[in-house]
From TrEMBL:
Alphabetical UniProt keywords: Lipid-binding
Species assigned in the record: Holdemanella biformis
Any Pfam family matching the protein: DegV
Coiled coil: none
Protein name, entry field: DegV family protein
Organism lineage string: Bacteria, Bacillati, Bacillota, Erysipelotrichia, Erysipelotrichales
Molecular function GO labels: lipid binding
């Protein structure tokens, strides 16, 4: 049995970073006006943020089908028998289904799951899967352990730029204008509770109250010993620090917090100024 871990850029790794870890990588596509970029290959988070600052409205789509086919064909030639596939949720993209279909066509067994989210939780699951592969754990056992962690995961996004959400069709222009006047901040959720789609969890006044509400909800489901926490910074250092401070207040100073920039897969929808916070139960043995 020859096994590979495969992911896409929703996990926040670049192609080089993934390959250095022995992980295979497919880039999501980012369309900016008439040009298409490959996320994590020829487009960095900093470059994407620069486009957002200048008022562009990027869109994302699944990895190029030709790249998927070429990779699965190479697996067949190289004798790869099993692939552990970890992608962003099926509610956000058809990437997982496309890769499974290609694997079936090429006779490569795909072991996968719906993680119902993306961002930091996806990164953690990818890194954990690679560690378990290196420990010679059977693919089905790895998927079972990942599923257990996904069952105990959740994530919230708090956007600052409501006009950007409106331009992207996720909020009406009138609702965005009214919310801005009233300083209303929607708390968005992407988890199993929302079937892996972006949905509104709650609406509160001010970014500070939104962050406190999100962390309060998290405090009911997680603890410092058994969970990993991710904070995503969409060019909002003040909000990011407030999330970190709130997590420390609730869980203590020994909590494990990973801080990353907001990855392209979500940043194109929220625009600049957003913050995110996620938790996931630690994967057994990883």
């Amino acid at each position: 049995m020859k096994i590979r871990v495969l992911t896409e850029s929703g996990c926040g790794l670049t192609k080089q970073e993934a390959n250095d870890l022995g992980i295979d990588f497919l880039p999501l596509q980012v369309q900016i006006e008439d040009k298409t970029y490959l996320d994590g290959v020829d487009l960095t988070v900093e470059e994407l943020n620069s486009f957002l600052e200048r008022g562009f409205m990027p869109q994302t789509s699944m990895p190029p089908l030709g790249d998927i086919e070429a990779l699965l064909e190479s697996y067949k030639k190289d004798g790869i028998t099993d692939v552990i596939l970890i992608t962003l949720s099926n509610g956000l993209s058809g990437t997982n289904q496309a890769i499974q279909a290609s694997g079936k066509w090429h006779g490569v067994k795909i072991h996968t799951l719906d993680i119902y989210t993306t961002l930091g939780v996806e990164k953690y699951l990818v890194l954990s899967a690679q560690k378990l592969v290196e420990q010679k754990i059977h693919p089905e056992e790895i998927i079972s352990r990942l599923k257990e962690s996904v069952e105990h995961s959740r994530g919230f996004l708090i956007p600052e730029d409501l006009d950007h959400l409106a331009k992207g069709g996720r909020l009406t222009p009138m609702a965005a204008k009214l919310a801005g006047m009233l300083k209303i901040k929607p708390i968005l959720e992407v988890s199993k509770n929302t079937e892996g789609k972006v949905d509104v969890f709650d609406k509160v006044r001010t970014m500070s109250k939104a962050i406190k509400k999100a962390v309060k909800v998290i405090s009911k489901d997680a603890n410092a010993q058994d969970y990993e926490f991710y904070v995503l910074n969409g060019e909002n250092q003040e909000g990011t620090q407030l999330v970190i401070d709130e997590l420390h207040d609730v869980f203590g100073e020994n909590i494990q917090i990973h801080t990353d920039p907001m990855y392209a897969v979500i940043a194109v929808h929220t625009g600049l100024g957003a913050v995110g916070v996620q938790f996931v139960k630690k994967v057994k043995g990883a």
